[in-house]
Structure formats: structure tokens, C-alpha cells
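in:
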């Protein structure tokens, strides 16, 4: 315990974020791998190790029971909380649906509608308000993402981004459930939360109550769909209902997609706009590229036009390199093993790969790895991808995120729509992001920004 105290004191004294402390340790490790013995955790930023864990020896590194227990009350047997046959079945089913053109068009339409009818009017209202255009962009993006993912997953519109910024009981309960579940994951002594859960007291009682609210709404949506028929609906739940009869299982599956698609998108958009507010020349280049691809009187880019914007794609990838929404991901070894760098992994050990640290490794990105430089992704103006095992923002290998392409497109639509009409100024741009503890990288205190309408915009 003394080592744990010293480590904690060291990072809290010298680094604003725990992920920066881990980055420091990994940067100074000859193998880009460290072993935090007191936590029973091997942490790596070595691409060879990442490929080994996520692809070569995939079967030996599942999420494992410790992780499943932490999120089990919220996600049940959903795809992000299971291994083996349960995971494989959901993976195949989701892969089939998410690869279809119809679901892509459906998601594209949802995002465009939310931008046109809610996001842009809200930002216009903020720009013209007596408060000087100040607004918390992180809160805006959390509401935006929640509306989108609920429409996409359940066919339900919580209306969180309405101009009055209403309080949604469902959104609040979901937020609280994910927050308290994340606290379980970061507990030094897991036995404490397990005892509180058994006694139904404290934070575990609050977690149970929050999950009950989420479940009640999910159950009601499923019930109504079964009554009214779902065969003509396009949302994910309706599609899954065609091949899954168990309502509890359906709820677990769709709740997992809400968790994956809400906070990750909100986190990605928040740090993206923080970075671009600090790099106005990049914003200018995005506008120049969009002007070359889109018609002068065109309000929204088409899916095909977005694919032509190589610079914008590079900007999004560079932002995700430096600020991945999920800063680290862990697996648990089934059997004794050796990683490619020679690190011994004992059976049952937690093995964590660290995308946040990997985005800051000179061995991967060069001496300018700390700089925001979208051009590193371009060659003669064309986007050039790198190995996903060097930048596993969306995981990689067999568990690569099925929603990767839709997420990237959503970020680009938001960027184009907002920068076409507004200038964004961060209240304290010189202050580096400080993250709140949680499953995803959310900024502590939000992102206060000043919104100004651009002049002479068609």
C-alpha cells in the first residue's frame, strides 16, 4: 500500500491527469510497458503488444469476469460486457445491421436533423443572448449525442437539446449509472463496493435506483414496439427484435450501444473543438476544403462529399490521436503468457493498452508527437491511414468498433455545420484539459466557449 500511496502522490503532485502520469512512465520505459505490481496491472503502449493482445492471441485476452462484474448491473449481457459465444452472436448480428446502407442513411439523417433543428438554433440563440454568447460546449455535445444515440438505438427522442435545455430523467439516471459504475472500476478495494451492493447502501443504492429508471423506460419502449409492431421501424432495437425474443437481453444489447455511442462522441467532439479553437488556421483550412467540395448555397454536405474531404478526415484523426474518448482499455489473461516485448503475463493478470499514451510516443509519431499537426496523416493531399495497432482509438483486430465509420462521419458533419456558421472562442484556451474520473474522457468543469455568428455566411 505504501507504493500505491507514493505513486498516487507523485502523479497528483506533478501531473493534472492520471493518464499523463502513465504516459510519462511509458515514455521512459525501454519496452513502452510498465507493471504496477500493487494494482496487479501490466500497462503497455507498445504497438506489437497491442496487436498481440487484440489479434494474435485474442482468445487469451478477453474482457474477463472482473470487468463484467463492474458493469454487469448496468449492461447485463450486452455486447460490451461479455465474451465468448454471447459476444460472437451479438457481434455478428450488429455487424450485419451496421454494415447496411439503410442503417447508414438512417444514422446520417438523424444527425443532420438534430444539427439543423436543435444544435444550430441553440448556438444561434447563445450567440445572440445577453450572456455574451457563453455556453458549455461539453454539455451541449452530451445532450446532442444522447438525442442521437437514443433515436438510433431505441427510436426514442429524449429531446435533451431542445432550446430550453430540459432535464431528462432518463439522461440523468443514465449519467448517474455510468458515473457510479466507473467508480467501481477505479476502486482500490473492490470488496468495498461489493459489500455496499450486498447491503444496498450508499453509492450502490443510488446506482441500483438509477438503473431501475433506465430499465423501466427501456422495458416500456420494448413493450410498445411489440404492441405496435416493429418490422417497419429502422432503429437498432427494432432490427434486433426480429432475431432476439428475450426482452431483457434486448435491453442489455441496446443499453450497451447507448453507453458506447453517447459519452464517447461527446468526449470526442469536446476535445476536438477545444483543439480547433486553439488552432484557427486549421479551421480556415477546413472551411477552404468544404468550399471546394460543396456548392456555395449548400447547407449540409452529402455522405459522398464528406468522403472527399481528406484534410477534415486528417484533422479528426489527429484530434482522436491526442485525445481518445477511451483513454485505456483492459483485458484479463486466461493463461500464463509472454508479450512480444518479453514481458511475462501471469494467469489472471489485468493487461491494459493505453491509446492516450500511445498518441504521445516518439517511437510511433516522431519528435513532434505532442503537436497537433493534421498534415502527418496526409501525403500529397490524400489521407494515409496507419496501422490501427499504433492508434487503437476504436480498438483494433477482432473487437474493432463497429460504429467507427459512423462516429467519424458524425464528427465531420458537426464540424462542417458549426464552423460554416460560427466562430468558437474558448474562455481559457491556454488551460490544458483536465479530465474527470470516468469510463470516458470528459472534461472537469466542462468546456466554456464564446459563440459568435460569422459575417457574410450564405
Amino acid at each position: 500500500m505504501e507504493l500505491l500511496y507514493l505513486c498516487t502522490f507523485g502523479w497528483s503532485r506533478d501531473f493534472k491527469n492520471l493518464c499523463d502520469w502513465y504516459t510519462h512512465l511509458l515514455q521512459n520505459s525501454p519496452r513502452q510497458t510498465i507493471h504496477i505490481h500493487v494494482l496487479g496491472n501490466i500497462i503497455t503502449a507498445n504497438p506489437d503488444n497491442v496487436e498481440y493482445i487484440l489479434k494474435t492471441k485474442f482468445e487469451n485476452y478477453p474482457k474477463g469476469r472482473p470487468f463484467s462484474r463492474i458493469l454487469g448491473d448496468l449492461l447485463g449481457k450486452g455486447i460490451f460486457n461479455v465474451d465468448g459465444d454471447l459476444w460472437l452472436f451479438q457481434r455478428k448480428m450488429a455487424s450485419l445491421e451496421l454494415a447496411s446502407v439503410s442503417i447508414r442513411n438512417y444514422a446520417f439523417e438523424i444527425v443532420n436533423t438534430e444539427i439543423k433543428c436543435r444544435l444550430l438554433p441553440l448556438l444561434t440563440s447563445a450567440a445572440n443572448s445577453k450572456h455574451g454568447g457563453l455556453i458549455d460546449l461539453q454539455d451541449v455535445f452530451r445532450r446532442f449525442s444522447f438525442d442521437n444515440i437514443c433515436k438510433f438505438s431505441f427510436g426514442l427522442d429524449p429531446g435533451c437539446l431542445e432550446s430550453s435545455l430540459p432535464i431528462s430523467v432518463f439522461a440523468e439516471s443514465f449519467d448517474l449509472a455510468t458515473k457510479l459504475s466507473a467508480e467501481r472500476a477505479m476502486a482500490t478495494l473492490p470488496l468495498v463496493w461489493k459489500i455496499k451492493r450486498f447491503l444496498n447502501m450508499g453509492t450502490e443504492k443510488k446506482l441500483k435506483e438509477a438503473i431501475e429508471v433506465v430499465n423501466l423506460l427501456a422495458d416500456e419502449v420494448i413493450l410498445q414496439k411489440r404492441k405496435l409492431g416493429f418490422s417497419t421501424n429502422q432503429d437498432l432495437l427494432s432490427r434486433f427484435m426480429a432475431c432476439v425474443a428475450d426482452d431483457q437481453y434486448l435491453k442489455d444489447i441496446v443499453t450497451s450501444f447507448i453507453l458506447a455511442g453517447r459519452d464517447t462522441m461527446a468526449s470526442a467532439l469536446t476535445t476536438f473543438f477545444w483543439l480547433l479553437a486553439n488552432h484557427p488556421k486549421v479551421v480556415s483550412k477546413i472551411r477552404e476544403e468544404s468550399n471546394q467540395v460543396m456548392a456555395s448555397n449548400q447547407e449540409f454536405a452529402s455522405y459522398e462529399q464528406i468522403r472527399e474531404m481528406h484534410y477534415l478526415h486528417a484533422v479528426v484523426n489527429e484530434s482522436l490521436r491526442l485525445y481518445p474518448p477511451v483513454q485505456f482499455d483492459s483485458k484479463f489473461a486466461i493463461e500464463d503468457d509472454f508479450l512480444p516485448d518479453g514481458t511475462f503475463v501471469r494467469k489472471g493478470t489485468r493487461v491494459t493498452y493505453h491509446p492516450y499514451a500511445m498518441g504521445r510516443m516518439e517511437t510511433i509519431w516522431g519528435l513532434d508527437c505532442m503537436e497537433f499537426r493534421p498534415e502527418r496523416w496526409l501525403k500529397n493531399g490524400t489521407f494515409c491511414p496507419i496501422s490501427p495497432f499504433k492508434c487503437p482509438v476504436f480498438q483494433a483486430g477482432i473487437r474493432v468498433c463497429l460504429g467507427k465509420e459512423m462516429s467519424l462521419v458524425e464528427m465531420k458533419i458537426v464540424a462542417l455545420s458549426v464552423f460554416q456558421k460560427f466562430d468558437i472562442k474558448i474562455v481559457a484556451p491556454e488551460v490544458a484539459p483536465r479530465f474527470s474520473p470516468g469510463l470516458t474522457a470528459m472534461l472537469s468543469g466542462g468546456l466554456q466557449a464564446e459563440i459568435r455568428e460569422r459575417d457574410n455566411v450564405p
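note: Residues 122 and 163 are 6 Å apart (CA to CA).
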